[in-house]
Amino acid sequence: MISVGALLSQQPAPLVGIDISSSSAKLVELAHNKAGGLVLERCAIEPLERGWITDGNIEKFDEVADALRRLVKKSGTRTKNVALALPPSAVITKKITLPAGMTDQELEVQVESEANQYIPFSLDEVSLDFCVVGPNKSSPGDVDVLIAASRREKVQDRQGLAEAAGLKAVIVDIESYAARLAASRLIEALPNKGVDAVVALFEVGALTTSMQVIRNEEVLYDRDQAFGGAQLTQLIVRQYGFSPEEAESKKRNGDLPDDYASAVLKPFVETLAQEIGRALQFFFTSTPHNRVDHILLAGGSAPLPGLTEAVTQHAGAVCSVVNPFEGMEIGSGVRMKKMAREAPSYLTSCGLAMRRFLQ
User: What Pfam families does this protein's entry cite (predicted)?
Assistant: First the structure.
């Protein structure tokens, strides 16, 4: 069975992580050097046309499979094993508490019995997996177990996509879990190794900005907003009369008229910073928390000029752009300048690639 969630994989063999979003597919391959440090062997991005992937659903299977084949070829990898991910909306997760010391078989029986209470469809229709998170804080003789379940067809869609691209899906994860795994390295680099720090992670996608607030690896709050980089493309279309495809291409290449920075980019950056500030206000009003210590920005729009400063101003917290490859050795096959420019887009695919080293 395919793993779903922050789940175990006995896959020491090479593995690529591929993140498929509404606007692009991103591939990352990692290795360990002799000292046990992470090495970025390969990374590549292949754009997807709007409508091919909608709300995590594959609407144009053949087109996405072709794009994955191009992505694999572009990256130069020969690795066939792949970790993919589903959006959180496609997966039900539940943390339960069970007695410590149970065998794997006993755990499996218990998990299936518990899962029946939380999953609104027959267990025959789902891919189900679980992992022991650790001892329960309030009950020393018990352990916390994370259950993750998704409709089988959703998992099979990802499997089929991998097969059509000549790959083998050995892990199907959850996008937000993979992003957190990659972000955990960056949080550890904060003062005091990030212990007790309240960190807000924003991933600005094409259509959606997802927010997770994390403290000591625990998610305090998460929320998605229907706002993203596609709005900037629409503003460019309206301002200059380009087609959406032209606007997207010119945005990526920086090939825009002289007044772009003042007429289009600056107002968009201000609006995006306001959206992030508003999301943080929702967090403060709906939880006991009243501060964040650090804001991390990921996604294709994260490096926009002036965005970190605008977010800091609106949120009153230190803000930085994510580079999931920070502190890694960079392999000879990676084009440094291109990687540095695109790094914030690779957060989830980097987390998927890191699954290779989780036993």
Answer: PilM_2
Domain membership of residue 202 (yes or no) is yes
Are 197 and 302 in the same domain?
A: yes
CA atoms of 20 and 101, how far apart (whole Å): 38
H-run or E-run covering 222:
strand 218-225
The pLDDT tens digits for 84-106 are: 999 998 998 888 888 988 888 88
- Compute CA distances 186 → 38, 279, 323, whole Å: 13, 22, 8
Q: How far apart are the first and last CA of the chain?
A: 16
CA distance 314 to 275: 9
What is residue 265's DSSP assignment? Answer: I
> Among 206, 233, 265, 269, which Cα is nearest to 48's?
206
In the three-class reduction of DSSP (H, G, I as helix; E, B as strand; rest coil), residue 285 is classed as helix
Q: Are residues 318 and 194 in the same domain?
A: yes
User: Beta-carbon neighbour count of residue 345 at 10 Å?
Assistant: 27
Is there a domain that residue 259 lies in?
Answer: yes
Q: The domain containing residue 113 runs over which residues?
A: 90-151
Residue 118 sits in the same domain as residue 207? no
Number of domains observed in the structure of the chain:
2
CATH of the domain at 137: 3.30.1490.300
Q: Which residues contact 120 (CB under 8 A, 6 or more apart)?
A: none
Which residues face 28 on adjacent strands? 17, 43
Question: Residue 223: inside a domain, yes or no?
Answer: yes
In a shared domain, residues 147 and 197: no
Produce one character per residue of 135-170: b if its CB has 16 or more CB atoms within 10 Å, e if not: ebeeeeebbbbbbbbbbbebbebbbebbeebebebb
Distance CA 241, CA 316 (A): 37
pLDDT at 96: 87
Determine how β-strand 38-47 pairs with β-strand 329-330.
parallel
Q: Which stretches of the chain score pLDDT less than 70?
A: 1-12, 359
The reply to whether 329 falls in a domain is: no
* Threshold 0.85, pTM exceeds: yes
